[in-house]
Design brief:
The chain is mostly helical and 246 residues long. It has one domain. It is 61% helix and 0% strand. α3 crosses α5 and α6 packs antiparallel against α13. The relative contact order is 0.20.
């Protein structure tokens, strides 16, 4: 029997309202992510778990990106490769699906596993023995805010209207899953277009880390990483991160 991880693990994230201070990562979360970006993100078994779960939950997906940007000075090689893989899954999941067969859409969008960090009980109260400078660096939103501001022109059109409480027709995966039964044919095609657009640009961004393609990425390609994380895990945490003061 398939376990509905959306209901058991992810549902509390959906619709959660963060403020800047409430989003601050705990020492335990930062310590885990600091080790994670050293290479664990590239382990095949880890990648497969993240692929099945559509990445992390909202808090940990954006937290991971914040930590990566902070320690790597905005050099997002690992996340670019990971989300190229996940967005390929998204593209294939909806390709050839009929909007009339809503159950197929729901099945395709549901996670097949829990958030890796939540399953390990990492959360706002997690403690760690990491050096204070590591914790301080991991809570510094400067680099991720620079990255977002530089690329905002291209990712802001992808922000889920439900997450942002706006009139945008764009939807993150979780809200798209909630609204699958009400989708029209035109709306479904528009969502397929959004996903294809994200995938095509994140492929170019990921490719730009190869030596022979260095320097070929555009701000629109970089923005696809923000769009991919938002589509997979929701946008509310990013809104909170952008409110954080250094």
């Amino acid at each position: 029997m398939e376990i509905n991880y959306l209901r058991q693990e992810r549902r509390p994230e959906l619709g959660r309202k963060y403020t800047g201070k409430s989003f601050l990562l705990s020492p335990g979360e930062i310590h885990f992510l600091w080790w994670f970006i050293q290479g664990s993100i590239m382990f095949p078994s880890t990648r497969e778990r993240l692929r099945k779960a559509w990445g992390f939950c909202g808090r940990h997906a954006w937290g991971a990106l914040l930590v990566e940007a902070s320690f790597r000075h905005g050099y997002m090689h690992g996340p670019a490769i990971l989300y190229e893989d996940i967005m390929e899954k998204a593209l294939l999941a909806l390709a050839g699906k009929s909007w009339l067969k809503r159950w197929q859409i729901r099945m395709a969008l549901r996670p097949k596993g829990p958030c890796l960090m939540c399953e390990m009980n990492y959360g706002p109260d997690s403690r760690a023995t990491a050096r204070p400078e590591i914790i301080q660096k991991g809570q510094d939103p400067t680099e991720i805010k620079k990255f977002c501001q530089r690329t905002k022109k291209y990712w802001e059109q992808m922000v889920c209207g439900q997450c942002a409480e706006s009139n945008s027709l764009a939807r993150c995966r979780e809200h798209l899953l909630r609204e699958a039964d009400r989708l029209s044919a035109a709306e479904f095609k528009e969502h397929q277009h959004f996903i294809r657009q994200i995938y095509e640009h994140i492929c170019l961004y990921s490719r730009s880390f190869r030596w022979e393609f260095r320097g070929t990425e555009s701000p629109e390609d970089e923005a696809a990483l923000i769009s991919a994380v938002g589509w997979c895990s929701g946008w509310q945490p990013l809104i909170a991160i952008l409110e954080l003061e250094k």
